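Trying the structure run again after the queue cleared.
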Amino acid sequence: MENTESVAPGVDHPAEVAFRGACRAFEALSPDFDPDGSRALFEEAVRLGGPDMLWRVADECLDTEEGPQWMSRAVVSESVPGGITVDPNTLRIERIDGVPHQKWEIAVESDDHARAVAALTAAADRMWTVFEDGGERTPEEVEYGLIDLYNPNFVDVNETVPSVWMDCKDGIMPHMARTDLRIIADELRKAGIRQAHLYTPSTDA
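Done. Tokens:
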């Protein structure tokens, strides 16, 4: 199986130094905690570490007020101009009664409905084997419970939209989201779709 987990820079890499410094500031929560200073360190980590660092920052900040913003920036980083693009609200983090949840649905807008459905069906077969760390495992590893991490309870395709929906119990898992987006993009290309837009339908839709 393809493993789409990102590899962190070495501990001495400036991006990693900035990221770990920001994480320590978050964890400390000292009386003199400086959110602007921590945010600046995260921005520096992203500048030096590239798009994959956005996903790590989103994961670190998922329980904060800034979590939705980092998630939005992370999903957009998966866009390929002129190819498969990703809407900023895709797999968004929402607050329901003050509690953050993630919206686990990805729809495809393209000029070939049938191929989009075929691509999503193929993607769904892979997405249930993606775990919270972003790793895609074999069906056997999932079936026999060899991975002690969370993966979707259920994955289904809505052929009308078309879209794929995952039952993740409202969990917020940026690394899983990253891999899911990459799987869908991969299956769309395999199906012959070179241009498409990925998005999560609005709650009221």
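The two ends are 35 Å apart (CA to CA). Worth checking whether this holds up in the mutant runs.
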